[in-house]
Amino acid sequence: MGTGSDPKRGDSATMQAPLPVELQGQIGQRLREAYIELINEPVPDRFVALLQQLKQREEESKEDSRDEK
Fold first, then answer.
1. Does residue 43 form part of some domain?
2. The predicted structure's pLDDT at residue 64
3. Could you tell me the pTM of the whole model?
4. Which of 10, 19, 22, 42 has its CA 20 to 30 A from that of 57?
5. Euclidean distance between CA atoms 40 and 5, whole angstroms
């Protein structure tokens, strides 16, 4: 057969011991801090402009469909 490892057995190169609970907690805390920092950043002006264009097109589309009835 092939030279690949048996997926049922697992490959010793990819098997990792679980991280200690303390380290998991530190990683979780850092991820939460990064997420909070990210969500508090302002939305770039280009995105705001694109959203406004989309909203305007949706409103125009609704008006057109009402006029057709």
1. yes
2. 80
3. 0.46
4. 42
5. 45
